[in-house]
């Protein structure tokens, strides 16, 4: 009995000792992660097992290779640290499921937060979800509901809608990719960018959070805001190019437009700076002056908003719209200048080299022109020649004044010459140092005042249109009155010299004044001014008439 009792006592003591050692071993196992963390071990290479740094509680299910952690969980893989409240780590496939206040830290520059996360240790990829998932890289903050992040490529992606916020702007999109290394991002579907100076709307774009440069690859609208509330904003439309949110400078490729309060500028490529108000368009340029109802087109257009000067080069064309007519003006270069007064702002147009004009009541060509829209005065320089109806006018310089958008007065200065062709195809001629021509309400020649070395040839006829003869008159000052381009009355100052030649005495040598040159072939047409191909009218082919066949009996 004593032996049995002693054996039992030894067994109880052994069991108590084993229980004591078991508690010591379990406690030591729980302290090992803390000891390893305190020793700051070398980070494991990418693709290795995710290590557990710390957890309030830990237990292992060896049958499936799962490790469960709860409370202040901290795990590590290389320079990636994962924090959460609850986690399940599968050692067989090296995958971690994290729940509750999830935070993933990569190095000292990136932090990811969310409600839940899946971390794949072999590929170093994380999938984070939550009411608000946040990515912060010390340059910008990205917020979404679901985020995928690759620790190797450092690219974050989402497709549930996200917002990227940096120091100057806020970017919203349905889908996005953000590279935290290069700070470059790609955003797609319903992209909106907001900043104090700019509102941007696009279907997709690339954006650099460092340079604040946005690159477009789809139709895009940009609203450049003015500081003054009363000033209208500038609006830009493009499908390709870049826009800097800091400098607000646009460099667009492809068909693009900037819409300003008073002007629109469009081209195949476009540069625009709203601060300096400088716009440069190239290729099929269209410039619209809204207040003046005018359109300028060409190959290169330059707009300087602060000075109010616009230039168009290369096949430049002005289309000035009136109530019932359109003025077409082409030249090598067209310059539009704003004349800013105290109350009103008017415009002056300058055309240089190879100038052509077409209007229903006026056609002209010269080498230089100035058109003041304020007083409707058109000045022609350098060998100008004008046509009006059956009239042709030449001088060293010519000035035409429009009243109610119709020709009323024409001033011909130095070596002035007017030719009026009548219904009998006779050429009535007036020349002198200066000529002032007046037109009626229908823009037809009414009378002319000739001053200095005046000469005139006009063909008289009876009421039945039978010719009477040709009058040649010479006087220092005279006024001729016309009706249907026929001289009806003439008045002189001083003693004129003249002669009436009957039709039989009219020859090719005396029927024209010195300098006469009827230049109808040079008269601009609508196609010439607009540089359109002239439609060739094909002659109607002559039908061959076959002889009537005889009927057989």
From TrEMBL:
Residues 66-203 form the Organic solvent tolerance-like N-terminal domain. It holds the Pfam family OstA_2. InterPro entries: OstA-like_N. Residues 533-553 are annotated as: Disordered. It comes from the Bacteria. This is Organic solvent tolerance-like N-terminal domain-containing protein.
């Amino acid at each position: 009995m004593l032996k049995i009792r002693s054996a039992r006592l030894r067994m109880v003591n052994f069991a108590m000792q084993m229980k004591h050692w078991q508690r010591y071993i379990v406690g030591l196992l729980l302290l090992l992660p803390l000891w390893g963390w305190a020793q700051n071990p070398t980070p494991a290479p990418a693709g290795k097992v995710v290590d557990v740094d710390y957890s309030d509680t830990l237990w292992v299910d060896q049958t499936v290779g799962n490790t469960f952690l709860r409370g202040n969980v901290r795990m590590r893989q290389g320079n990636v640290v994962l924090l959460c409240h609850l986690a399940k780590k599968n050692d067989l496939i090296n995958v971690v499921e994290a729940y509750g206040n999830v935070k993933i830290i990569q190095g000292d520059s990136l932090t990811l937060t969310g409600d839940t996360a899946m971390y794949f240790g072999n590929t170093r990829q994380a999938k984070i979800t939550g009411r608000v998932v946040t990515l912060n890289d010390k340059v910008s903050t990205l917020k979404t509901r679901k985020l995928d992040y690759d620790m190797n490529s450092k690219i974050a992606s989402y497709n549930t809608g996200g917002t990227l916020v940096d120091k100057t702007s806020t970017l919203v999109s349905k889908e996005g990719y953000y590279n935290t290394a290069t700070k470059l991002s790609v955003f797609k579907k319903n992209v909106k960018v907001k900043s104090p100076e700019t509102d941007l709307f696009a279907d997709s774009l690339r954006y650099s959070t460092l340079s604040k440069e946005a690159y477009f690859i789809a139709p895009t609208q940009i609203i450049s805001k003015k500081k003054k509330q009363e000033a209208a904003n500038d609006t830009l439309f493009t499908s390709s190019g870049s826009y800097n949110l800091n400098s607000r400078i646009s460099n667009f490729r492809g068909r693009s437009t900037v819409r300003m309060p008073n002007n629109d500028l469009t081209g195949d490529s476009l540069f625009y700076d709203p601060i300096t108000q400088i716009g440069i368009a190239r290729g099929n340029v269209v410039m619209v002056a809204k207040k003046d109802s005018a359109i300028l087109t060409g190959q290169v257009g330059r707009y300087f908003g602060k000075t109010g000067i616009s230039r168009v080069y290369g096949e430049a064309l002005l289309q000035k719209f009136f109530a019932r007519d359109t003025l077409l003006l082409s030249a090598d270069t067209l310059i539009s200048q704003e004349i800013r007064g105290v109350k009103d702002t008017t415009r002056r147009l300058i055309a240089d080299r190879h100038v052509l004009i077409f209007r229903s009541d006026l056609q002209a060509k010269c080498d230089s022109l100035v058109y003041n829209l304020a007083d409707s005065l058109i000045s022609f320089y350098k060998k100008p020649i004008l046509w009006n109806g059956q009239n042709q006018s030449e001088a060293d310089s010519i000035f035409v004044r429009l009243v109610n958008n119709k020709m009323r007065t024409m001033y011909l200065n130095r070596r002035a010459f007017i030719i009026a062709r009548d219904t009998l195809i006779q050429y009535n001629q007036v020349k002198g140092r200066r000529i002032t021509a007046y037109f009626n309400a229908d823009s037809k020649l009414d009378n002319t005042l000739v001053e200095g070395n005046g000469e005139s040839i006009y063909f008289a006829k009876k009421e039945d249109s039978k010719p009477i003869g040709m009058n040649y008159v010479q006087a220092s000052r005279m006024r001729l009155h016309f009706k249907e381009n026929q001289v009806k009355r003439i008045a002189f100052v001083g003693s004129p010299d003249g002669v009436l030649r009957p039709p039989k005495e009219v020859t090719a040598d005396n029927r024209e004044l010195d300098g006469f040159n009827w230049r109808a072939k040079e008269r601009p047409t609508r196609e010439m001014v607009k540089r359109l191909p002239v439609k060739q009218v094909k002659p109607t082919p002559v039908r061959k008439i076959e002889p009537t066949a005889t009927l057989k009996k």
